[in-house]
Amino acid sequence: MTPIITHISQNQIKDVGDKAEMECTVSNPLDYYVLWTKFDLEKSNDSILFSFGSTLNIKDSRLSITKDSKMDLIRYTLQINDIQQVDSGFYHCQIIIGLHHIISAKVELKVRGPPMIHDNSTSSMVVMEGQQVTLECYASGNPSTRIFWKRENNGILSVNRSIYK
């Protein structure tokens, strides 16, 4: 009898530093291999093999894999502690049936991070009156950050427009 994935965790949204547990339950696994892999959100062709059965393939103290059995069901749980932004992605539970036959289910992990302004942003600038100036702000965060420019008197400035006094 061919194995099937009977349960996969729901998509998860976690904060930086939290813990995530992704479960995959397989019925009739017999002698087939069950894998946890991760596909990067930004690099769709890049994947990482996290586990092979109940063996973790990556040496990282934040990661663990457990295997629990009940009757003809086996649950594989991938746990990630102290989640970081790089942990965002699609995690696939896969059963390798044959060379061109893989049963797969996925769960997406999104990691929320605080907004940050990066060091390569313009911090201060001195120019002569009438000169053109370009100020740059590099920021990140999840969900996406919105950037507002303010003058010293707290008046909001338009983006991508010339401001004349």
Blueprint of the fold:
Layout: E1 4-8, E2 12-15, E3 20-27, E4 33-39, E5 47-52, E6 55-56, E7 63-70, E8 73-80, E9 89-98, E10 101-117, E11 139-142, E12 149-150, E13 156-157
Parallel strand pairs: 2-10
Antiparallel strand pairs: 1-3, 3-8, 4-5, 4-9, 5-6, 7-8, 9-10, 10-11, 12-13
Strand portion: over 45%
**Overall outline:** elongated
Task: Spell out the helices and strands N to C.
Answer: EEEEEEEEEEEEE
Largest sheet: 7 strands, mixed
Instruction: Calculate Rg over CA atoms.
Output: 23 Å
Number of strands: 13
* Tally of individual helices: 0
Q: What's the average pLDDT? A: 84
**Proportion of helical residues:** under 10%
Structural class: mainly beta
Structure described in brief:
It holds the Pfam family Ig_3. Keywords: Disulfide bond, Immunoglobulin domain, Repeat. With about 160 residues, this protein is an all-beta fold.
What this model shows, in words?
The chain has 165 residues and is an all-beta fold. 0% of the residues lie in helices and 50% in strands. The chain has no helices and 13 strands. The protein has strands at residues 4-8, 12-15, 20-27, 33-39, 47-52, 55-56, 63-70, 73-80, 89-98, 101-117, 139-142, 149-150, 156-157. Strands 2, 4, 5, 6, 9, 10 and 11 form a seven-stranded mixed β-sheet that branches. A hairpin with a 7-residue loop joins β4 and β5. The N and C termini lie far apart (77 Å). The relative contact order is 0.20. The mean pLDDT is 84. InterPro entries: Ig-like_dom, Ig-like_dom_sf, Ig-like_fold, Ig_sub, Ig_V-set, Neural/epithelial_adhesion. Residues 3-95, 115-165 form the Ig-like domain. This is Ig-like domain-containing protein.
